[in-house]
Amino acid sequence: QVQLVESGGGLVQAGASLRLSCAASGRPLSSYDMGWFRQAPGKDREFVASINWRGTFRNYADSVKGRFTISRDNVKNTVYLQINSLKPEETAVYYCAADSSPRNYYSPAIDADEYDFWGQGTQVTVSS
After folding, report:
1. Measuring CA to CA, which residue among 35, 97, 80 is closest to residue 61?
2. Adjacent-strand bridge partners of 22
3. Residue 32: pLDDT band with limits 50, 70, 90
4. Closest CA to 56 of 41, 40, 88, 34
5. Phi-psi region of 114 (alpha: psi -120 to 50; beta: other; left: phi over 0)
6. Which residues lie below 8 Å from residue 9, measured CB to CB, with a gap of 6+?
7. Please, what is the end-to-end C-alpha distance for the chain in angstroms?
8. What is the pLDDT, as a whole number, of residue 49?
9. Percentage of the chain surpassing pLDDT 70?
10. What is the pLDDT of residues 72-90, one digit of tens each?
11. For the residues of the chain, what is the DSSP string, one character each?
12. Which one of 32, 64, 89, 92 has the minimum C-beta count within 10 Å?
């Protein structure tokens, strides 16, 4: 199975940018569709973005379209989430996840239940 480790979080001011990374080990990243989710204090985990195993198709939550970009480098076994124009309400723990059985090549999963493996998360805190 694959192990996932996120990095790149931190404390930033509103409007700042961050690039989160998710490094995979144990199995080639190309075996999986990948997703990013986040969970704010007291709230449910929510979908942010996903990308298919080839990096050719992506899905985004409506709230992040135009500001977040998911990408992947299967040679480096890493998935990225570029976050721009951060908002205080986007303070959360950001998780990456791997889907070993994608259902739709053209539309990577947005439902957390379809992901089999999860990282430990990286904290993003946005001050106003």
Report:
1. 35
2. 6, 79
3. very high
4. 34
5. alpha
6. 18, 20, 94, 122, 123, 124, 125
7. 40
8. 98
9. 100
10. 999 999 999 999 999 999 9
11. --EEEEE--EEEETT--EEEEEEEESS-GGGSEEEEEEE-TTS--EEEEEE-TTS--EEE-TTTTTTEEEEEETTTTEEEEEE-S--GGG-EEEEEEEESS-S-TTS----GGG--EE---EEEEEE-
12. 89
At 11, which amino acid appears? L
Sequence length of the chain is 128
DSSP bridge pairs for 122 = 94
Tell me how far apart the alpha carbons of residues 100 and 97 are, in angstroms, rounded to a whole number.
10
The amino acid at 104: N
Which amino acid appears at position 62 of this protein?
D
How high is the pLDDT of residue 78?
A: 98
Q: Exposed/middle/buried for 62, CB within 10 Å: 0-12, 13-18, 19+? A: exposed
Tokens of 19: 């690039």
